[in-house]
């Protein structure tokens, strides 16, 4: 299954889960169930944004977007995070209103069955989306959201079961503890969702700021240095774009190489890094001169044949006449 089909599957599952949870709220009038239903509705909006973002990210590069449209996935993750945070304000209002009027919820067997069905749908959706962890930021964000939906749905299931048992066997306990338990569950779910959404929002914003993970930079530098003919990696800039990385690299080669030979080395570096990073790679080549060899500091001893300057000769002695 490709990314686009996974996003569409998640969208259809979101419609089903949201409808089920709204039906469960209509049966129980629980603010906790309402919180979960509102969150699912917001997630449905986020999934729609994700589907559009993934579809946009698959478009090939064009004149206006020479590096492709991969950052559309990151924007989808930001949209989903902001939507969840906006829904928190509405849930907080409903929780305060519920506790002020002290209105207990009314769980039924049907509402329990509906929540169980929604949990089953969410579980299967998470299994599909987790296949794209590390591949698509937007789908990874959805997998995180729906995994937390399972945790919140489990808490709501426990709340509904408690309410059903208490209503049948201890109505006074339900009247006394029902409203605060309902509101506390809703608050817990809301805080948990906001915390996770804030983490995802921060990660997505960092990606938009061209953050380069140090481990990716180190691995890319090592891979480029290992290409035959590369003397050194002078500089390397890596930036994330959706699920891929783009790179600008400067390498040095032997200054005595021909232009063709230097180009072949640069071409091999480009192919190797593209395979490693998945994005566009720009390679700049600079010459590296030979290191001069050290010569002996001692001087050559003078030749034995060398002669000192001739001194003036003595006048010949004269014999007596």
Percent of sequence in beta strands? 5-15%
What assembly state would you assign to the polypeptide chains in this entry? single chain
How many beta-strand segments? 3
Main β-sheet description:
3 strands, mixed
SSE order, one letter for each helix or strand: HHHHHHHEEHE
Helix-strand makeup class: mainly alpha
Taking Cα atoms only, what radius of gyration do you get, to the nearest Å? 37 Å
Strand order of the largest sheet: 1-2-3
The backbone outline, from C-alpha atoms, is elongated
The percent of residues in helical segments reads 55-70%
How many angstroms does the end-to-end distance come to?
132 Å
Mean pLDDT: 77
Can you give a write-up of this model?
- The chain has 321 residues and is mainly alpha-helical.
- It is 64% helix and 10% strand.
- It is built from 8 helices and 3 strands, in the order H-H-H-H-H-H-H-E-E-H-E.
- It has a 3-stranded mixed beta sheet with strand order 1-2-3, covered by helices on one side.
- The termini are far apart.
- 39% of the residues are buried.
- The C terminus is likely disordered.
Sum this structure up briefly:
The chain is 64% helix and 10% strand.
